[in-house]
Each structure stands twice: as C-alpha cells, then as structure tokens.
Amino acid sequence: MAKYVIQWKNRDGLAGNEAAGKRLLDLYSKWTPAAATISQFVSNIDGTGGFSIVETDNPLDVMRDVTKFETYLEFTVTQVVDIADAMPVFNEAVDYMDSIPK
Description:
Layout: E1 2-10, H1 18-29, E2 37-43, E3 49-56, H2 59-67, E4 73-80, H3 83-99
Antiparallel strand pairs: 1-3, 1-4, 2-3
C-alpha cells in the first residue's frame, strides 16, 4: 500500500469569509474518505491548513478526496516511504558513488 503526505492550506479569500468557512465545514462534515487508511489528520494551530498521512493502493482515491475541497483549499500531495525502507536505497546510492573513482 502506498503512503502519501497531504498538505493543505486555505485558498486566498477564505480567511474572514464566514460563508465560505461554513460551507467548507459543511462539506467536510458529510465527507467519507476514499483513501483506505488515514493514520494522521492534523490541523495547523493557526487554522490556515493542515496535514494528513494516508495509505491506499489506488492513487485515484487521494485525488477523489482532495478534489472535493479544491474550491476552498490548495493541496500538495507527496508520496513517501518509511525511513526503514528508504535507508537501504540510500546506502546503495552511497556504495555506488564510492565505487566510481573520483
């Protein structure tokens, strides 16, 4: 299952727009995530955005989730791997570079 970090921030014009804020909260309250597992779902303490970590076998599920809110929020989606899985790849790269004379 692939893991994604999703960052969102409020689009310009959302701050101070009470009707837009209420609409976003209404949409969120009725939303059922398409992504299989949400392991973290956090908000910035200043209310300007947040992060989630989700796992899914289908990247279109991430797309299904973010497109429902793109009128109000800007998203950055980054696919990630666990550091324990990444370390052997990093070591392989170091070994490769060390094997080539300078």
